[in-house]
Amino acid sequence: MATFDYQVIIVGSGAGGAMAAYTLTKQGYKVLMLEAGRDYNPKTETPMFKTNAQAPLMGSGNVDKDFGFYDATVDGGWTVPGEPYTTGEGSDFLWWRSRMLGGRTNHWGRYALRFSPHDFKGFTRDGLGADWPFEYEELAPWYDKTEELVGICGTNTGLDDMPDSAEGILQPPPKPRIPELLVSAAAKKLGIATAPMHRAVLTRPKDDRQACFYATPCGHGCSIGAAFQTTTSLIPMAKATGLLTVITNAMAKEVNVDEHGKVNAITYIDKMTKQSHSLEAKVIILAASACESARILLNSKSEHHPNGLANSSGHVGKNIMDSTGVGYGALIPALAGRPKYNEDGHTANHLFIPWWGHQLHKEKLLDFPRGYHFEIGSGFRAPGAGVSGNLDGYGQPLKNIAKQAYGSYVSLSLRGEMLPNEHCYMEIDQNVKDQWGIPVVKFHWQWSEHELKQVEHGLKTARRILETMGASFTKPLPKAEDAILKGGQIIHEVGSTRMGDSSKNSVTNQWGQTWDCKNVFVMDAGVFASNPHKNCTLTIMTLAMRNATWLASQLDKGAL
User: Fold this and answer.
1) For the chain, how big is the Rg over CA atoms in Å?
2) Are 445 and 422 in contact (CB under 8 A)?
């Protein structure tokens, strides 16, 4: 086996792993990165300018390509051949794995909203869940640094759920689409504000990445680097230092300890040869995704760590949360038959509806805690296998109906905060192993009344907005328990190795350093103490930059 020269081993190449590698190599440390998936280069593999008409089944999704034929997830999804997981009785959970260099950053929605002061101290406010071990103000300058490095478009709004960035950090947002302006006008009548969505998409050139020119859906990957993914930014930047080595197809199996119980190595499986290899480790960073990192810790049992590594609190695998999700939409008559023009934009919504209910909570006018936002789906998009509208007939009359309805459908997608509960956790299923001989995860899942009440409120609000826009409905609203998406379906799972200020009820301290093993860190969403309604990737990267900087200071001092 080849000999590697490194001081830190990082497991995972997504948002947390790549940011940690970038930060440490910039500080002069040699890093070895293990990635369970294959190598991937968006500059050569992205299907730019390909249309659904050129794809099988008009580009629609299937079990091998959940988000369509052109999706950037080249080897992974909710189903990964040879890598099963199980669920407990009555549980319905979907676990997304991106088996590729860059992980989920290759296909994520690029929504990049900061968590707000409300989000870090939820327990203090309403007695539910857990507080983060620091205030928003401590993370704010790190958000600025991350947004500047990544390249985020948007504006400062002054809204209480959207903290402002420092002056000059944000790039200009794209102009709103016509349907989004109509949503905004309708929401305003109901006392609800809209705002430009903050996205990790360049509207101005940055380093060697080009500005978006609205050519290809971001989920396909981005060969020009406008839509952020670590494979066109952080990983090449870290490699340019000469201090990063990457091993792909390396499935981490367990973290090893010496006769005193101190971590001294990590074992991985070479997926090409199926051979097991152990690497000596001074410091290990787990950034394999929340549930994968927890799986590695739980599988790392020894005489000194009988319940798994870093698990003296019993919280590894507990406190799993995902975002709530539900969609509701309608055909808006005022938008039917309008002139056709290019309304692509940067793929996702240019405007969205931030959470507006913090004051309502203070006045105790809501029957659920925390909040949600609406993402707007609208505009002229490249047609796929399905066409909206009440289609009837065939031939030219059918074509006329489809053309009239094209671009007139507006959807509101709710994404909300979930609170941890005792029924949502993961454990190791000792009766099932994956193709690499590693015991798999067994998930347990159950939405609570908090989430169901939230979704019920969201459905009612969505209908009111759509009705204000001119939509009409004949069917009653669906029940929340029927409409809410499955656990894991939004792909925002967090909390499995949560941070805190006590080793009794958390797995890591505020720096992502595990309480039990000072040379093992977690730098993915597993450390989240709560799961605010915003996409978690920006905060994963921000924490990784902050915590890897602290780790470098400890290495500088010889404390590790």
Assistant:
1) 23
2) no
Report the DSSP pairing between strands 520-522 and 283-286.
Answer: parallel
Residues 6+ apart with CB under 8 A from 288: 11, 12, 17, 36, 252, 296, 524
- How far are the Cα atoms of 212, 266, 332 from residue 31, in angstroms, in the given order? 32, 14, 54
CA 138 vs. chain centroid, Å, equals 22
Q: According to the 3-state scheme, what is the secondary structure of 312-374?
A: CCCCCCCCCECCEEEEEEEECHHHCCCCCCCCCCCCCCCEEECCCCHHHHHCCCCCCCCCEEE
pLDDT, position 401: 86
Can you give the pLDDT at residue 388?
60
DSSP 8-state secondary structure symbol assigned to residue 448: -
Residue 180 to residue 555: CA distance in whole angstroms: 50
Q: Residue 199: left if φ>0, alpha if ψ -120 to 50, beta else—which one?
A: beta
Average pLDDT over residues 273-296: 97
**Element at 551 (helix H, strand E):** helix 537-557
Tell me the C-alpha distance between 264 and 262, whole Å. Answer: 6
Q: What is the DSSP letter of 466?
A: H
Is the entire prediction scored with pTM above 0.90?
yes
Q: What is the amino acid identity at position 73?
A: T
Do residues 454 and 368 make contact, with C-beta atoms less than 8 angstroms apart? yes
CA–CA dist 323, 310 (Å, integer): 26
